[in-house]
Amino acid sequence: MFYQRWGIFILVIATLVVSTMVGVFNSLVNNIYSKRKEFAVLRAMGVTPKSLRKVILSQVNLYIIIGLIIGTLMGLLTTFILLLVDPGKFVIDYKVIITVSLSMLVGSVFIFWFVGNKISSQKLSVELTNDNK
């Protein structure tokens, strides 16, 4: 019975992590699409599509890295607070932290490579006259 409940707990936690990752990627895609006119101005100034993809990927990866660092620190702080209430053995599962971090970074590069391609291949005249609606 213990293993069954532990398995359900791990499944729920994994579902929450995956849902959070999808939500982060969705909000970042919306953020990038809301800046289409800014990217069109950059393209009009002579930025190549390859450079535009680099700009998009650097912005997204910076957001992801900052979020991972702050999330890891807040998780450790929460763990220390819980250890004050219920003392026990302090164990950090580095494999899980590294796996989630790498999957976020690889997923963001994969998703936003295609988003950058799509934004950089749009017609410049349409993007500059579009109201972002």
Description:
With 133 residues, this protein is an all-alpha fold. The chain is built from five helices and no strands. The termini are far apart. The mean pLDDT is 88. The protein is elongated and about 60 Å long. Helix 1 (2-34) runs parallel beside helix 4.
* Helical residue percent band: over 70%
Overall structural class, as computed from helix and strand content, comes to: mainly alpha
H-E order: HHHHH
Distance, first to last CA: 53 Å
Q: pLDDT average, as an integer?
A: 88
Question: In percent, how much strand structure appears in the residues?
Answer: under 5%
Shape by Cα distribution: elongated
How many strand segments? 0
Q: Low-confidence stretches at least 5 residues in length (pLDDT < 50)?
A: none
Most strands sheet: none
What's the tally of helices? 5
Q: What's a concise summary of this model?
A:
The protein is mostly helical.
What is the topological layout?
Blueprint: H1 2-34, H2 36-44, H3 49-85, H4 94-120, H5 124-129
Helix pairs in contact: 1-4, 3-4
Features:
single chain, 133 residues, mainly alpha, 5 helices
